[in-house]
Amino acid sequence: MNKYEYLLQDLTKLKGVGRKTASILKKKNINTFLDIIFRLPESYTDRTNLVNISNLQIGKISTIKVVVRKYNFPRVRNLPNKVICDDNTGKVECVFFNSFEGYIKKILPLNKEVTISGKFNYFRNTYQISNPKYISKESNLILKKHNKYSLTEGITENVYNNIINQILINLPKLDEWLSDEILKNFNNESWQDSIIKIHDPNNAGDTKSNFYKRLAFDEILSSLIVFSQIRKKIKKIKKKRKIFKNISNNTFEKKIGFKLTNDQSKTLNEINHDLSSRSKMFRILQGDVGSGKTIVALIAAINVVNSGYQVAFMAPTEILARQHYILSKKIFSEEVNISLLTSKTENKDKKIIIEKIKNNKTNIVFGTHSLFQKKIIFNNLGFIIIDEQHKFGVKQRKGLSDKGGNNCDVLLMSATPIPRTLTMTIYGDMDLSIIKEKPKFRKEVKTYSKLESKINEIVKFVKKEINNNNQIFWVCPLIADSKKIDHVSTQKRYDYLKKIFKNNVNVLHGNVDNENKEKILNDFLNKRFSILISTTIIEVGIDFPNANVIIIENANKFGLSQLHQLRGRVGRGEKDSSCILMFKSNLSENAKKRIQILKKSNDGFFISEEDMKLRGYGDILGFKQSGVKNFKLADPIQNEDLFVLAEKEIKRIEENEKSLIKYKPLLKLYDQAEIINDLV
Ligand code: ADP
Ligand code: MG
User: Fold this and answer.
1) In ligand 1, which atom is closest to the CA atom of 261?
2) Ligand 2 mean position, distance from CA 294 (Å)
3) Closest CA to 217 of 647, 585, 555
4) Nearest ligand, CA of residue 327?
5) Entry pTM
6) How much of the chain exceeds pLDDT 70, in percent?
């Protein structure tokens, strides 16, 4: 068996791991030795506190050395078995419920000395311990620190520690993949030593030591190697240049009614440069909500159309696709043929649109992911734009990039500002354009919190806003009332507000049919009504500059970044705007903290960082759904220095092509080898 085969063995190969234990672990996705190795102890239980019975403290974990004196097995149902033990200072009773006599006699043999650890009680003048788990004739097995792992129900600490110890005893020494220079940063800790050290209870929670950092670095490096390989592969693809005359910004600025910001122009230039180059573009455009990404993408799209290619513009929701479509109809000349295709498009229309796409009669098609079905065949696709799709993982992105063929450029857009280290690990396969500044005259959205019971005050506020000719979003978590979840529904809120505001209220959610959806959106845009009650379908992308108030019910239910996204629906025009977060009951400390962050800042970058500190980076932004694996050890916030170091190392590796072989073992450890084989 080679070293990797050892690590990839099934846990059932170990002593004490039967089918039952294995199947419990399997549910947690723990199958092999390797899976165990990378699960770190969370803390430990200290059992080194050896005391005399007379000094036992109630309810505190203590360890005693005693001699077994007497069995008391009543042989009556429901009465526990008891074993009396003592030391020079007193007596203790071990009480067993539901345990077999044979088992008890084995672990507590008469007249022998044993070490027992646990929490003790004092009952009828005697010290007692119920169902003690830490008993041994060898005191050194008990008198130590015992690792605590987050355990699945059905697996005891003992069983789990036994598994780990067996694996660690025979842990192979792997050939070193890190360069000498890098290793120096970690005091030359080898992989094997590092693994053993992170499982030493004395080191539980220590993330600052060299052995921990070495392992975290390994993990970061392996993920960056994968990205580097994908980038390299994409960069090698040669395409036909797109030849177009740069339309002067003026022409557009007249139609859209504003000047592009510097960052919009800068990023547009980067994109145009890629479009007209010989290499395929694979780029992400990042910018906070409201930074104006759409227009940049649309101008790029028109350039591609002018160079003779088709464009596919994909949005995460049908509503957003529709909005982009409506905007394009407004700003592009009639010569540009545009279509909208979503899963909700009626069949007969769908056929016509698909036909037009196939015959090059459509220049730009807007849609949801339904754009990428097999039956949709583009005549001459040259550009794919994907809006707000951070839920795509590496494989899906690569799939998209392949879909259009070599001549097809790809642009992703994302409003989720994340720290650079995280960008590196999530979008490391792409080139990056960032819009940092927001359009001028933007004002901060004022944020308030209100109890649901004070809805009267909110209604009063809304009336005042409507009198000033303003519009309001009113967001509810549910469409209809639910027996299971106690949240406000659009239906309930509509019934309530309708009585007050009559026809000035409307509802929009995923179940509204197409025709109505378009009508509602248009009516809201044209100010035919003032309050739009909706679910979070308006969360991403939706743009109604005249709306300046957003009210969010059950705000507790949403994450910070999501609230920031929702809030980003207002504050797009030049008016003062506000966001009211509604709560059912008084706020918990944690909720208060979150609200403070939102009140304090309108900066998505800051908010996502704070969100990460509160919840961990994997939980936010829906990255978990994307197949982007959570790091096991590395942390994009804590280990920024390691990311920078890894980035440098990657450059060195890229310059020296052959050196990759050395990293194969590393890639295997982090389950990346397969991705490389798949993708490259
Ligand atoms: P996001 O980056 O969140 O996708 P949008 O593209 O939806 O932002 O733009 C947000 C709002 O800002 C829209 O109403 C858009 O018309 C407006 N906008 C975009 N660029 C500018 C600009 N340079 N000056 C003023 N308003 C702008
Ligand atoms: Mg957008």
Assistant:
1) 23
2) 6
3) 647
4) 1
5) 0.72
6) 93
